[in-house]
């Protein structure tokens, strides 16, 4: 769904493959990281660590999708 971190290697139909424009060559020439349109964690444990790193507790929202009330349990 997200695609390879390097946009040129990302498959068509992925977010990075369809919408990212940066390249590793441009990043290396400017001594910077490759700009990405989206971030994704590799595992749920990695996501938990990254959430703690990048967000404050009051920035995390809990919500219910509108269709959740329609599920029959």
Automatic annotation (TrEMBL):
<dbReference type="Pfam" id="PF00334">
    <property type="entry name" value="NDK"/>
</dbReference>
<keyword id="KW-0418">Kinase</keyword>
<feature type="domain" description="Nucleoside diphosphate kinase-like">
    <location>
        <begin position="1"/>
        <end position="60"/>
    </location>
</feature>
<protein>
    <recommendedName>
        <fullName>nucleoside-diphosphate kinase</fullName>
        <ecNumber>2.7.4.6</ecNumber>
    </recommendedName>
</protein>
<keyword id="KW-0808">Transferase</keyword>
<dbReference type="InterPro" id="IPR036850">
    <property type="entry name" value="NDK-like_dom_sf"/>
</dbReference>
<comment type="similarity">
    <text>Belongs to the NDK family.</text>
</comment>
<dbReference type="GO" id="GO:0004550">
    <property type="term" value="F:nucleoside diphosphate kinase activity"/>
</dbReference>
<dbReference type="InterPro" id="IPR034907">
    <property type="entry name" value="NDK-like_dom"/>
</dbReference>
